[in-house]
Amino acid sequence: MTPLERLDARHADALLRFERENRAYFARFVPDRGDDYFAGFAARHAELLAEQAAGLHHFHVLVDADGAVLGRFNLVGVAGAGAELGFRVAERATGRGVATQGVRGVVALARDEYGLRRLVASAALENAGSLGVLRRTGFVPVGEVSLDGRPGLRHVLELGA
């Protein structure tokens, strides 16, 4: 599989296509982004890239040979030596190890490139796929959490000193 790419302006069209094509699928596990997200996508994308340039977040995409986005893997809320991991994978790419590969890749970047030492991630209890990815990549459950009214588990991964 291909390596993660740091999100930049050239990914905008493919990322919007990814979000549109998978909107209903994602809404089964996480709250829908809403129509405003899609209507204002260009401005929001530019805003996210500016926040990334300021060091507030680290956004990544996994693309196939045709340039289509298969998944996005984000480290948000970078503070001190920690950040929160979020990820989503295209429905057509599920069950093939794409999420696990992407999370492993972003964990390595967090540790080796960004100097992070602790990641947190949450997943809804009904999202068995994401919970499995977190377990396979070394995240440890630390407690229950409510994700927009859905019961979930909070996880932590210590990356070392």
Overview of the structural elements:
This protein has one domain: Gcn5-related N-acetyltransferase (GNAT) (Aminopeptidase, 3-Layer(aba) Sandwich). Strand 6 and strand 7 form a beta hairpin. The protein has a seven-stranded mixed beta sheet with strand order 1-2-3-4-5-7-6, with helices on both faces. The protein has 161 residues and is of the alpha+beta class. 35% of the residues lie in helices and 32% in strands.
Which terms would index this structure?
161 residues; alpha+beta; Aminopeptidase; 6 helices; 35% helix; 32% strand; globular
Strand order of the largest sheet: 1-2-3-4-5-7-6
Low-confidence stretches: none
CATH architecture type = 3-Layer(aba) Sandwich
**CATH-assigned homologous superfamily:** Gcn5-related N-acetyltransferase (GNAT)
Global structural class: alpha+beta
CATH third-level topology: Aminopeptidase
Molecular shape: globular
Work out the strand percent. 25-35%
**Mean of all residue-level pLDDT scores:** 93
Rg to the nearest angstrom?
15 Å
